[in-house]
Amino acid sequence: MPDCNVNFEAEIEEGQNKRSVKCKFCSSVILTPATAAIMNVEHSLPLIRQTKTTEENPDTETTSVFWAVKDMFTFQNVGFSNTVGNTKYLTCADCEAGPIGFHDIPTKMSFVALSRVSHGDPI
Amino acid sequence: MAKTYDYLFKLLLIGDSGVGKTCVLFRFSEDAFNTTFISTIGIDFKIRTIDLDGKKIKLQIWDTAGQERFRTITTAYYRGAMGIMLVYDITNEKSFENIKNWIRNIEENASADVEKMLLGNKCELEEKRQVSKERGEQLAIEYGIKFIETSAKASIRVEDAFFTLARDIKAKMEKKLKEASNPPKGHQLRASEPQKKPTSWLSRCSLL
Ligand SMILES: Nc1nc2c(ncn2[C@@H]2O[C@H](COP(=O)(O)OP(=O)(O)OP(=O)(O)O)[C@@H](O)[C@H]2O)c(=O)[nH]1
Ligand SMILES: [Mg+2]
Ligand SMILES: [Zn+2]
Q1: For ligand 1, which residues put their CB under 6 angstroms from it?
Q2: Domain ranges of chain A
Q3: What is the ipTM of this complex?
Q4: Which NCBIfam families match (chain B) (predicted)?
Q5: pTM of the predicted protein model
């Protein structure tokens, strides 16, 4: 799913998320409005739905638009996977769908892929 | 950026294998994504936000694998934990009997301040029940901790349990903070308040 042609502009206000960031599958609130910064970085992420589940060689796609979060406790609800290399993958805290992004252990920064979440008003 | 929360509490889920610790940690759903990359590598912890009496509380909750057994869970594991959910399965006598061993392990390894709570999970399986509610209550009284029966599958009282534990930690913490800012004065001749153990999480914890 390429994420470059989707119109994310409407979700950005002063470089931050205008609305809540939610799980696409269960609507769990991941970030409340204005808590994360928009960032363009290329990063390959394993697909949420794998055709074959192999830990060493998962199907991946390159994702390039992220919500960057400096302090992990900024998240409203989120799951952190066990460590793989320098990374922990982020999941929905309620249905565990993921990876919705990743956490970089050396910099302690977390990144949520815009293409893997939905945006909306809190329920 | 300004802090978006008032308190951060670190919680652990402990208990025998199969009692439902992992299920308690997320809203049980039949169509959970259990054939994906994530379930292969496993979840380390979750962050959840709750509102308690007008305060924003962040819960960082660690799931543990029951097959590690109490013998192998050591001090490092409990470091920084402020609350522990002790979970047994009401349809499994052995898991209830083992709660005593888990508590002994906590007493040996965790901070004395740690707030504990007992959960009897799978309470919707009334026809398979092996441990009566009264026995759960009795054990909790014996240890001076709170008790609640839950069902992760039927979403019964799971949120209550986390709210109750968080509320007790918050109350304990606010009491300690108050005592620290208003030391008892006047004509009391008592030598001194008992010293806080240096291993206490409260001594490392500041009001955020
Ligand atoms: N009927 C019923 N089944 C439950 C409930 N909670 C969990 N289970 C089931 O119990 C089994 C074990 O649940 P887990 O959450 O994996 O148990 P655990 O305590 O994490 O086990 P370990 O990870 O091995 O320590 C699973 O098949 C769940 O579907 C419940 O409230 N009711
Ligand atoms: Mg488990
Ligand atoms: Zn979800």
Answers
A1: B 17-23, 65-67, 121-122, 124-125, 151-153
A2: 9-46+61-120
A3: 0.91
A4: small_GTP
A5: 0.85
